[in-house]
Specification:
about 375 residues; about 30% helix; 4-stranded antiparallel beta sheet; alpha+beta; 19 strands
């Protein structure tokens, strides 16, 4: 996947939140004040201040491109993003508020796109990654699922080798099954054995379905009819998160959810338990460190968060169950580098490492001017 992009750098935490209503409240608070108070709440950086204008993000035509200090405009509709590993939140899609928004990613963001994120464990998401994650590699270089972000000639070579056409999404499944972190980054061996290829696809399809969490079909479910339920309702605001392994019960204050398999509770990403990080992100606005717009959030625990929690528990439990199988997967004998060079796959051309030209979009530049792409 030659084209990769660094992660978005928001520059100010208040532009993202687990609750879209909180983002609208923050926008109203910011636009409802002026002068020094607006400057303080905005939290200027070298790249973004209230006095600076910016182009509209591709696909977000409702966003104003005037200087924020002069005409903030209406609140842009929050969009779903991947903020942290397995943590889907919301973002205000206004480039005037974001230090490095990566518009080249917004141009190819649509219902066909999938993004891989390079962390110690490769993440795949249908939502734009917008957190402190790793390098982002879109599956497609153009909107509409056009032009795979793969080395030219690779799919043709694999189709000849394995006796059938290989699709971009199938190759993504292979990456999930066979890829591993290495000294030069995330490394993906290519097998010379068609049977190992098919075995990798079967495993990768299961991994992909779990990671996408229903974005491309039915949400995954635990086997045997097991599924986490709310056993006692979460109160107005839970005062902490706790887990009892014997009863497989997750407690949020006085509320309880079970069964929660131990694998889900212990699942870590970037050295942190995912469930604990998820809960901390939803209680951050109530902490003593919360200040300014970041302190604006729900006064009571939203029911939608409990539904998200149940889905997250299922995702983590399934990934924990698949982890031993994935760790044991062997790709078998590899394709020789010489064969890849002879097929023109290696090295990928320079153009494949750059964003594709997307000329079918009209984008508004700073101050209402049209941008030339």
């Amino acid at each position: 996947m030659p084209w990769s992009v660094g992660g978005l750098r928001l520059g100010r935490d208040w532009v993202a939140a687990p609750d879209p209503a909180a983002l609208r409240a923050r926008w109203a608070a910011l636009t409802g004040c002026e002068g020094a108070e607006r400057e303080r709440l905005f939290r200027p950086s070298r790249r973004r201040t209230p006095a600076a204008g910016a182009a509209a993000l591709p696909g977000q035509r409702s966003a104003s491109t005037a200087r924020f200090a002069d005409a903030p405009g209406p609140c842009p509709e929050p969009v779903r993003v991947l903020r942290e590993p397995f943590d889907e939140q919301w973002l205000l899609p206004d480039q005037r508020l974001i230090d490095t928004a990566r518009p080249e990613l917004w141009r190819v963001r649509d219902e066909h796109q999938l993004f891989t994120v390079e962390t110690p464990e490769l993440l795949v998401t249908a939502h734009l990654p917008a957190g402190r994650l790793g390098r982002i590699r879109p599956l497609h270089r153009r909107p509409g699922g056009a032009e795979p972000n793969l080395a030219p000639g690779l799919l043709d070579l694999l189709g000849e080798r394995y006796g059938g056409w290989a699709s971009p999404e199938e190759f993504l499944c292979w990456i999930l099954a066979a890829g591993r972190p290495g000294p030069r980054g995330y490394e993906v061996p290519l097998t010379a054995d068609p049977e190992r290829w098919r075995a990798g696809l079967r495993l990768g399809h299961r991994l992909l379905a779990v990671q996408l969490r229903g974005a491309r079909g039915e949400p995954p479910r635990l086997p045997g009819g097991r599924r986490p339920y709310v056993r006692s309702a979460v109160g107005a605001w839970p005062d902490g998160l706790a887990y009892d392994a014997d009863s497989e019960t997750l407690s949020l204050g006085s509320g309880t959810v079970s069964p929660v398999p131990q694998g889900a509770w212990e699942y870590e990403a970037q050295g942190v338990r995912v469930l604990e990080a998820w809960f901390a992100a939803r209680t951050a606005h109530r902490g003593s460190d919360a200040d300014g717009l970041e302190a604006l959030g729900p006064a009571e625990w939203p029911q939608s968060w409990t539904s998200e929690l149940l889905a997250l528990v299922t995702t983590l439990a399934l990934l924990a169950d698949l982890a031993p199988e994935r760790a044991a997967f062997e790709p078998g004998p590899g394709l020789a580098a010489g064969e890849l060079r002879a097929a023109g796959v290696l090295p990928p051309p320079t153009r494949a490492r750059r964003p594709a030209s997307v000329l079918d979009h009209q984008e508004e530049g700073p101050g209402g001017q049209f941008a030339l792409l």
